[in-house]
């Protein structure tokens, strides 16, 4: 058995080396160990209170949000479980009961 690191995105143990990169066959993520520490420091997402968010956290919406393309409103106090952090303006991807898949801005949520 080799001592290759697990995938930083999906935690798969089936990673392999391809030149100077490590590759995950399950999620197709590619990384090298030197840049892994640098990218983790750059992608810090904080909620409205300044708490650091991570993948899998549970959050609460702190104000009523209009849902683009719909006449419905996402009410303040709505709880969301198992968030996923992404790059971009709307930096939280999640599934909300009754609404489906959504992207949220971290400034409108607080960590539970």
Radius of gyration: 17 Å
Q: How many strands appear in the DSSP assignment?
A: 13
Distance between the termini: 40 Å
Mean pLDDT: 86
- Give the percentage of residues in beta strands: 25-35%
Poorly predicted regions: none
**SSE pattern, N- to C-terminal:** EEEHEEEEEEEEEE
Determine the number of helices (DSSP H or I, runs of at least 4 residues): 1
Largest sheet: 3 strands, antiparallel
Topology:
Elements: E1 16-18, E2 21-23, E3 30-31, H1 33-42, E4 45-46, E5 52-53, E6 59-61, E7 65-66, E8 73-74, E9 79-80, E10 84-85, E11 92-96, E12 100-104, E13 109-111
Antiparallel strand pairs: 1-2, 2-3, 4-5, 6-9, 6-13, 7-8, 10-11, 11-12
Can you tell me about this structure?
There is one protein chain. The chain is mainly β. It contains one helix and 13 strands. It has one helix at residues 33-42; strands at 16-18, 21-23, 30-31, 45-46, 52-53, 59-61, 65-66, 73-74, 79-80, 84-85, 92-96, 100-104, 109-111. It has a three-stranded antiparallel beta sheet. The protein has a three-stranded antiparallel beta sheet with strand order 9-6-13, with no helix packed on it. The radius of gyration is 17 Å and the shape is elongated. The chain starts with 15 loop residues before the first strand and ends with a strand. 11% of the residues are buried.
Considering the chains and any ligands shown, give keywords for the structure.
112 residues, mainly beta, 3-stranded antiparallel beta sheet, 1 helix, elongated
Summarize the structure.
The protein is mainly beta and 112 residues long.
């Amino acid at each position: 058995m080799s001592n290759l690191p697990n995938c930083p995105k999906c935690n798969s143990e089936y990673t392999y080396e391809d030149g100077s990169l490590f590759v995950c066959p399950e999620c197709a993520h590619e990384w090298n160990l030197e840049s892994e520490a640098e990218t983790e420091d750059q992608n810090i997402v904080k909620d409205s209170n300044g708490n650091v968010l991570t993948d899998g956290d549970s959050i609460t919406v702190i104000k009523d949000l209009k849902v683009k393309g719909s006449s419905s409103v996402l009410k303040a106090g709505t709880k969301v479980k198992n968030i996923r952090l992404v790059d971009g303006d709307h930096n939280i991807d999640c599934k909300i009961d009754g609404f489906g898949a959504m992207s949220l801005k971290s400034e409108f949520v607080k960590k539970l």
